[in-house]
Design goal:
This protein is α+β, with helices and mostly antiparallel strands and 236 residues long. It has a domain at 123-227: Ribosomal Protein S8, Chain: A, domain 1. It is 38% helix and 11% strand. The protein contains 7 helices and 5 strands.
Amino acid sequence: MPRPERRRRALTAGSLDELRALQKQARRLKPPAPAETPATAGGDAAPARSLGPEDRALFRRVMQGVHPLSKRPNRALIPPAPVATPDQLEERRRYAAGQPALPAPRVSDEFTAAPQQYDNTAFVQAGHGPQLLKKLRQRKWPVGASLDLHGATLDEARQRLDRFVQSCREHDMRCVRVVHGKGHGSAGNAPVLKDTVRRWLSQLEAVQAWAECEERDGGAGAVLVLLDIRDTGASA
């Protein structure tokens, strides 16, 4: 056989051997494909792995104290709406009809309660004992709202105070604060608004008691007012 033909065959055999070696190396480096289970072959998700004894014991410890929900309808428990008084219903009707609000109840600017009920720093409505006033001063009831009458005229203050009291009763606010100022800026340095507001409060049926605030809450320039909340079960 001629020498060139022999050399050509030797080169071809060497190239095939190198190709086979490269194929084997590639198969070793390629990661194996995941084994196909009957579930995955059909397109469905594989079944979940069953829990072992240790996992079951851990689950029981975690769920300790957990109880199933009772078979109740999925409804929120909302307390019944407070029953409005006839006066409140009339005011709402007039407001919905676009009519002007009813005028505030007429109270006297010069009214003075009986001495045993009123001493210019506190008042308790007839039919209630001194314990009610004591509880008010001790802050048994949290203050639900506050009205600031600074800078108001007597007519403005009268209207605002009446609306404030009505609104607080509608929202079941038992104790509120009324700020009237100490009157140092009034003509003649006389506390006109302060004394008049306290007289008004003493005449309102909705007011069970009021007491001058502590200094941190306004001192002589404010009073805590205890309101009579109807149809709410509030007690003194």
